[in-house]
UniProtKB/TrEMBL annotation:
Name by which UniProt lists this protein: Peroxisomal biogenesis factor 11 beta
Polar residues composition-biased segments: 154-167
GO cellular component: peroxisomal membrane
InterPro entries xref list: PEX11
Chain ranges passing through the membrane: 238-259
GO biological process: peroxisome fission
Keywords: Membrane, Peroxisome, Peroxisome biogenesis, Transmembrane, Transmembrane helix
Pfam families: PEX11
Primary location recorded for the protein, binned into one broad class: membrane
Region (Disordered): 154-177
Gene name linked to the record: PEX11B
Compartments, as annotated in UniProt: Peroxisome membrane
Amino acid sequence: MDSWVRFSSQSQAKERVFRAAQYACTLLGYTLQKGGSGVQLLKMVKQLETHMSLTRKLMRLGNSAEAVEAAKRAVHLSDSVLRLCLTVAHLNKAMYFACDNVLWAGKVGLLPKLDQDKWSQRSFRYYLFALMLNLTRDAYEIRLLMEREARTSHGGSNATWTSSPSPENGDLSHPHPSSSSFPVAILPLLSERFSRQFHLLGMVLRSNPPLLLDLLKNACDVFIPLDRLGIYPTGQGFVGACGLASSVLSILTIVHPWLKLKP
């Protein structure tokens, strides 16, 4: 199994290139259709997209083993949230690849009676669940880094708290805001708090390019199964743009391994 995992990892870069080409064809076909291009040209682009998809499915044969191995490694992570998210995400990827392999067999004629629509929907459900878990992992990592950055920016100093005047402690020198003025008084405080949080989020993402790229890649990818499953239809143009963008980001993490989020 280890030798197969090494072989799969070597072919990953090629699969990403074919994926970028496939979604580029999807985007190109949508653009040509909107521009009123000829039927023959549209048919050629569609056929090229189909060939790219079948080639990718062939390259992903056996990727389930790699996903299972990744799940085994994730089980030993010390952080319970990361352990749960990554383990279940990798197991869903393994099921997605297995369904994709069956679907490839049906498309090439090895399983002529296969219900391809059913297996396609099943594979996209596993893919969507894996992406949702990856996005949950990204959000968890961001929250941890934001908390760490907030502690660092405050220098670990303890704030001095004073008791608010209230009728209970006998201090009535400052009247409480009326119910009508309270929402108006609280809006600037909420605005300032949101501004600080967005600033902190920007600092965290700028200082962690691997996390930023993983977040962008997963956010782009999630629209693909949402569209294919009919949960949130966005159209071929948007799906093609998202698929192309996420493919380019994936290629960047392969060309520059330090940009890949670990573990």
